[in-house]
Design goal:
Layout lengths: L2 E4 L9 H10 L5 E6 L11 H7 L7 E6 L7 H7 L3 E5 L6 H11 L2 E6 L17 E5 L14 H15 L4 E5 L7 H7 L3 E4 L1 H4 L4 H12 L1
Parallel strand pairs: 1-8, 2-3, 3-4, 4-5, 5-6, 6-7, 7-8
The protein binds D-xylitol-5-phosphate and zinc ion.
The site of D-xylitol-5-phosphate has 21 residues, from strand 2, strand 8 and helix 7.
Length: about 220
């Protein structure tokens, strides 16, 4: 499996609808929506009202990555706005099991995101309950940062951990993914690749998507 999830953080915010149509036509698998609150991460992006406004522009799954404190308080609103899958940061939540159960209850796919320095071992017990895990390969907050190399081992470790307990787990990697490293990340065991700058660079969306896709072939 090689799913590409363009991050709209690098899109043209004055023309988000058009850019979502463009990534859909260019062969994206999921639309990755980065939600930042200026507290969990040092940047502010978009909220549920924007998700609702852009939802009609694609039939692809909307994958909402919550980089916010108290994410549980907003699960229902994002689900209602059109999120098909929601991931929250392990570092932002005390009651992980309850939060995962809330997502299931809402009928969205449940994911947990780990910051680069958070070891995958923290997920051991909750792993069977998850649809996906998002491994951050940059410190969250901004697009266009450099890939942190030690996160490759985390992909391998997590894939190994999931072999018995959750063989269908989707491993998503986010941050600094580009045409030069995507194949290596797939070989390490990642299934879904978030890419912001690598998709929107020079606004050559189709060309950039094709370059990424070629590497996964
Ligand atoms: C970072 C976000 C990422 C980001 C990826 O906090 O979670 O989704 O937009 O951007 P690139 O691909 O440019 O590193
Ligand atoms: Zn993200």
């Amino acid at each position: 499996m090689g799913l590409i999830a363009p991050s709209i953080l690098s899109a043209d915010f004055a023309a988000l609808g058009q850019d979502i149509t463009a990534i859909t036509q260019a062969g994206a698998d999921w639309v990755h929506v980065d939600v930042m609150d200026g507290s969990f991460v040092p940047n502010i992006s978009i909220g549920p009202m924007v998700v609702k406004a852009i939802r009609p522009y694609s039939t692809l799954p909307f994958d909402v990555h919550l980089m916010i404190v108290h994410p549980e308080q907003y699960f229902a609103e994002f689900a209602k706005a059109g999120a098909d899958m929601i991931s929250f940061h392990w570092e932002a939540v005390s009651h992980i099991d309850r939060a995962v159960a809330m997502l299931k209850e809402l009928g969205v796919k449940a994911g947990i995101t780990l910051n680069p320095a958070t070891p995958v071992s923290v997920l051991k017990d909750i792993l069977p309950c998850l649809d996906y895990v998002l491994l951050m390969s940059v410190n969250p907050g901004f697009g266009g940062q450099k890939f942190i190399p030690y996160t490759v081992n985390k992909i391998k470790e997590l894939r190994e951990m999931a072999l018995d307990s959750n063989p269908d787990l989707v491993i998503q990697i986010d941050g600094g993914v580009d045409a030069a490293n995507i194949r290596m990340l797939a070989q390490a065991g990642a299934d879904c690749f978030v890419a912001g700058s690598a998709v929107f660079r020079n606004r050559a969306i189709q060309e950039n998507m094709d370059l990424l896709r070629e590497q996964l072939a």
